Amino acid sequence: MKRDVRPFFIRLATLALLSAMAPLQSGLAALPEGLVGAPMPSLAPMLEQVTPAVVNISTQGHVQLQSNPLFNDPFFRRFFNVPSSPRERKTQSLGSGVIVDARRGLVLTNNHVIANADQISVRLVDGRDYDAKLIGTDPETDVAVIQISGTKLTALPLANSDQLRVGDFAVAIGNPFGLGQTVTSGIVSALARSGLGITGYEDLIQTDASINPGNSGGALVNLRGELIGINTAIYSQSGGNIGIGFAIPINMASQVMEQLVKFGEVNRGFLGAEMQNLTPDLATAFGLPDTKGAVLVNIVGGSPAEHAGLRAGDVVTTVNGHHVRDASDLRNQLGLMRVGDAFKLEFLRDGKRQTITAEVGSRQEATASTNGLKNERLAGVSIGEIPEDASAYGRIYGVMVYEISQRSRAFAAGLRQGDIITAVNRQPIEDLSAFIQVVTQTKGQLLLRVQRGNQGAFLVIK
């Protein structure tokens, strides 16, 4: 039996309400004395300035459908007359966006709003329609930038989201369920939400301002009409709003936007250090007064962290003068830097405060060239440390397959890009140096224990 999911409305119990109001009689509609003759409190004046900057986005695109492996067999395709062209499915999407630069027509939105889009259309609140150009996307933060060419556009000023406090009023504007522009209000319920699995880099604002499907990419503003966040997700067991919504802080979104506009992509740097939160027990063991900071637990050989002189046990407290709350915060701050950027890092070692200047390295610097492994079974495969923005980082020990040739032995054996190798010939692999040592010493076949997503398997490369 199907569950009835049609919208329903609840009528208030009027009997109790009327009995409570009866003594008020004719004074029911009277305003408090202090407001007599004064304008009614309203968000309308602020919203009249803000809503022209919030746009509705619709997209059309396509995705390739995964097919049965038998379809890859030419004989099978000919016998059953299966078309050789890839199977596709058309997609449509509705969402929201925010104009942040009126002169250049730049619009901030979510990556998932415009993913797989071949055509992006933008509609302003005054009814004007524009075809949009994709500037760049960053799936790791769920941020995307598109551009429209129009006149008399309105852009929102950006707030400093680092100054937000729990309890600050917040107003969400977007296009829920494709109904058209809608405004809801609430407060900032929590800050620095992470570990939710919504995006790769999380430092999310939580709000009870009603956010629903279609609000994605829309604006979260303060009472001055300044943009404090980009609405991105809700927590819901029914698909509707239950008062737990999340937005990307505008400070993070704007830093990503700068890279997308300038370079068309986000080229994240690589530090080469595993880290964990500074718990109360660890703080006591390290002799530290509080739990603010991130503990480095492993330094990758040859990485920027090692070159900078960092060691396991160092407690990082600030990056470029910004305080580090925990390991997730440190990862976020480093993840917003570009390869080659120099940064100042302050840390505690044996209770003494030290400062170093380091340079963000390239992830490829941690990649092993298979030519140097001296094992022909891995020819055509590029192996490296598990990157800091991978979902397995900090949870699984091993190395990651960065690139693999389809003509290699490893590919024929079933190894794929993104696989994590956790053991070689039944020897656990913790890092790249251990992998190189085992593989170099092996003369015969390689038995690999591989983790792919949530599933594990053994592969043999002969």
Using DSSP, what is the number of strands? 25
Determine the fraction of residues in helical runs and give it as a percent range.
Answer: 10-25%
Tally the helices. Answer: 10
Structural class: alpha+beta
CATH top-level class of the largest domain = Mainly Beta
Main sheet record: 7 strands, antiparallel
CATH topology descriptor of the largest domain:
Thrombin, subunit H
Strand content: 25-35%
End-to-end distance: 54 Å
Number of domains: 3
Q: Which spans have pLDDT < 50 for at least 5 consecutive residues?
A: 1-28
Q: Write the CATH architecture name of the largest domain.
A: Beta Barrel
Q: What value does the Rg take, in angstroms?
A: 27 Å
Write a concise keyword list for the protein shown above.
462 residues, alpha+beta, Thrombin, subunit H, Pdz3 Domain, 3 domains, 6-stranded antiparallel β-barrel, 10 helices, disordered N terminus
